[in-house]
Structure formats: C-alpha cells, structure tokens
C-alpha cells in the first residue's frame, strides 16, 4: 500500500516505525530459545532428572512469550 502511494492509517504508520524493534525482539527470543535448548541437550542423561524441575520452570517462564507475544504486547521493552 505504501509503495503504491495509498495513505496508511496512523496506527499502521506507528507500527512501521517500530518494525526494527519488533524484529530485534523476535530475533532475541529465538536466540534465547536456541541457547536454552542447546544447554538442555548438553546435560548428561545421568543427571538430567536433577535438572528437570529447573528446565520445566524455564519453559513455564518462556511460555507467555511463545504463545501471546504480539505486536501490541505491553512492556516488552522492559524485559529484554
């Protein structure tokens, strides 16, 4: 729409101005998750049961971002 010269609503323009910030949040979340899973995979199976409560708690902590993070999420900048 913007390339065709069609005027965009103010709300859309505000989102476009924040596009880079939202992409950084997404990239950061993906990096954190990749590192988390890499660390979990590196735990020897002999002691994994000892770490399981901590792994589960970390997954619970990640869940809101994995399921409800959206372009209009409030206070996202305060946690990253």
Structure description:
- The chain has 80 residues and is mostly helical.
- It has one domain (10-79).
- The protein contains four helices and no strands.
- It has helices spanning 10-17, 19-42, 48-68, 76-79.
- The protein is elongated.
- The two termini are 32 Å apart.
Key phrases:
about 70% helix, mainly alpha, 4 helices, about 80 residues
Give the gist of this structure.
By secondary structure, this protein is mainly alpha-helical.
Strand fraction band? under 5%
- Low-confidence residue ranges: none
The number of helical segments is: 4
Derived structural class: mainly alpha
Span from first to last CA?
A: 32 Å
Rg from Cα: 18 Å
How many E strands?
0
* SSE string: HHHH
Overall structural domain count? 1
Kindly state the percentage of residues in helix: over 70%
Give the overall shape.
Answer: elongated
Taking the sheet with the most strands, its summary is: none
Q: How confident is the prediction overall: mean pLDDT? A: 82
Topology:
Layout: H1 10-17, H2 19-42, H3 48-68, H4 76-79
């Amino acid at each position: 729409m913007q390339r065709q010269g069609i005027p965009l609503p103010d709300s859309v323009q505000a989102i476009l101005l924040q596009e880079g910030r939202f992409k950084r949040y997404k990239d950061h979340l993906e990096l954190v998750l990749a590192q988390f899973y890499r660390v979990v995979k590196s735990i020897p199976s002999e002691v994994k049961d000892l770490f399981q409560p901590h792994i589960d708690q970390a997954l619970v902590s990640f869940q809101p971002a994995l399921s409800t993070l959206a372009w209009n999420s409030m206070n996202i900048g305060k946690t990253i």
